[in-house]
Amino acid sequence: MTEPVLEIRNLNVEYGLGDQAVRAVRDVNLTLHRGEVLGLAGESGSGKSTLAYGMTRLLAPPGVISGGQVIYHPEQGDPYDVLELSDAGLRRFRWAETAIVFQGAMNSLNPVHKISTQLTDVLEAHEPRMSESSRLARAREMLKLVGIAPDRMDAYPHQLSGGMRQRVMIGMALILQPQVVIMDEPTTALDVVMQRQILGQLIELRERLGFSVIFITHDLSLLVEFSNRIAIMYGGRIVEEAPAASIYRDALHPYSQGLLGSFPALRGPRRELSGIPGSPPDLKGMPAGCSFHPRCPKAFDPCGANIPVLGRPATPDGGARSVACWLHPTAEPVG
Amino acid sequence: MKYFLQRLGFYVFTAWAAITLNFFIPRLIPGDPVQALITKYQGQLSSQAIESLYVLFGLDENGSLWSDYVDYWKQLFGGDLGLSFAFFPTPVSEVLGDSILWTLMLVGVTTILSFAIGTGLGVLAGWRRGSWTDGLLPVTTFLSSVPYFWLGIIAIYLFTGPDSFFPSGGGAEVGLVPAWDVYFIPSAIQHSLLPALTILVSSVSGWILSMRNMMVTVASEDYITVAHAKGLPERRVALSYAARNALLPNVSGFALSLGFIVGGTFLVEIVFSYPGIGFQLFQALGANDYPLMQGIFLIITISVLVANLLADIAYLLLDPRTRKEG
After folding, report:
1. What DSSP letter does each residue of B242-261 carry, written as one string?
2. ipTM of the assembly?
3. Residues forming beta bridges with residue A333, ordered by sequence position
4. CB proximity A127 to B under 8 Å
5. Residue A13 confidence (pLDDT)
6. Same domain, A17 and A149
């Protein structure tokens, strides 16, 4: 395994303060390695977007980070904790090291400014010594990179289609050549054809430019295709993490199996789509023990009593994956 | 451009309709101006004088309604609005010319100031929501619900008096001739301070409230989060991203209030006996001065229309989404 670029350690995010607080992200440990695509999947409300906002410190009030570390390893120099950065340091870190492509392709661009203005103001903020003409040249170059004619520079967002807007956002995310790009359901608002096109392009760009991607989506089938490793979240915790192929072939956690069972396979015999009974847990009143046990078809005695820890399972490929489930009692906890 | 021409056409049509109404309404009111003058002079007019008044007002020749209407338009374009009864025989255009400058200076300047200050404070309060600035909101809500004229009466009661710096009414020291000189201008400013503050205090809160609320709404938009994530300086996010978008709905409000400069603050002018259009209308009403009323209505109509046109132009400049290609 290559060296890490972003390490999330024991991250906790809460909404609200005191007793009323809702813990949306619980003791999450996750490592993003250089050059890989890490998929993050889970139902709505499982905490995947909150995790992304938390590690970039973009949480809107009342969201607060109540503990943990986010260690960033720059290309040169010593690793540092993003959560400890000063306001000015955080501004320098943002976009230059970690850029984000957001869910709402339609609303991510400021409607009253031209595309060129919105591309160049990043450069203006981060590289003040760059000349106006080289900023524009760079912006044009980014548009070309994502397959938009450079003559659209002077267009306003409302003159572009949803797919084009999301391409502009991807171009904007790459303009400072960040090491990490977080994609928060980047293609949810787009049709399937456009989804595939944009993701394919992104993967191609990643191979050329060498950044790492955290890809957040509820669409596990997309992740299986596009990511190297997949982490599955449930109720604010990571319940399973493994290489994409392992998740697809033999997911260990019953929740992962449920997610996989809820979309059709392209090949192989026809089978009944099962889905997962019940609904996501209420973060205010989480069930005791494993939070999935009320919906779990395989729940047995210990599930309702104790929270399973994320650890290496005793399978042949156990060294490369981890799971938090009493069916796979762990010998060696991770994190 | 096509959009702009469409709007312009619409405004020309509205102006035509308003002016036509303005022509017909006085003719539907029973009595005529000569009758009104006769009553005013309580029978002291000789029959020759009455005859000559009919000639003077152009009522001697019984032309058709249509030819009257055509003449009315001709007069309008010649700037002739007829003669005022109350200030007989001064032409209405002259009476209006004197008073409109007073109103424009007082209410115009305060409206623009109020919008600028209120919007600025609103941006600040909206951006720093949840901090101490939220404590000011109940105060502004209270002030924005207080009527202008009541505030004016209170101001006169509290701040004017024999030894006070603030005069209780009028536009300038009695006896000074309006001119751009060192005697008239300071006196005019001194007289305008109290009415101006009255208007400012009661109107600025409205701008603060609406701008703050728009800021709060806009602050939750995705593009604001993106701007933060881009690591842009706080000032740029607040002004160029949030305030720039939050301003749009307020622009139309501002244009409306510009239109009401002439017609909206009668009561303040009346309370302070300020020699503006509103005070003039008050006197015209008291004196049954139809030509003057007609002239004032005309000015109010035109100013509302011009303000709306300005709002349309401002929108075209500020919001690219209203611009049509080609």
Report:
1. IIHHHHHHHHHHHHHHHHHH
2. 0.86
3. A311
4. no
5. 93
6. no
| Domain B100-287, architecture per CATH | Orthogonal Bundle (1.10)
For B241, which residue in chain A has the nearest alpha carbon? A110
Q: Using a CB–CB cutoff of 8 Å, tell me whether A50 touches chain B.
A: no
**Residue A224 contacts B, CB cutoff 8 Å:** no
Contact A110 B245 (CB under 8 A): yes
Domain end, chosen from A154, A177, A200, is at A177
pLDDT in tens, A60-104: 888 899 989 999 999 888 999 999 999 999 999 999 999 999 887
Could you tell me if A36 and A138 lie in one domain?
Answer: no
Name the residue range of residue A51's domain.
1-97+178-288
Please check whether residues A244 and A170 belong to one and the same domain.
no
pLDDT tens per residue, range B124-183: 999 888 778 788 888 888 888 888 888 888 888 888 877 778 887 777 777 777 777 777
Residues in chain A within 8 Å Cβ distance of B223: 107-111
Whether A220 and A138 share a structural domain: no
* Structural domains in chain A (count): 2
> With b meaning 16 or more CB within 10 Å and e meaning fewer, what string describes A5-43?
bbbbbebbbbbeeeeebbbbbbbbbbbbbbbbbbbbbbb
Pick the closest to residue B126 from B254, B249, B310 (CA basis): B249
CB contact under 8 A, A110 and B318: no
Whether residue A333 is contained in a domain is answered as no
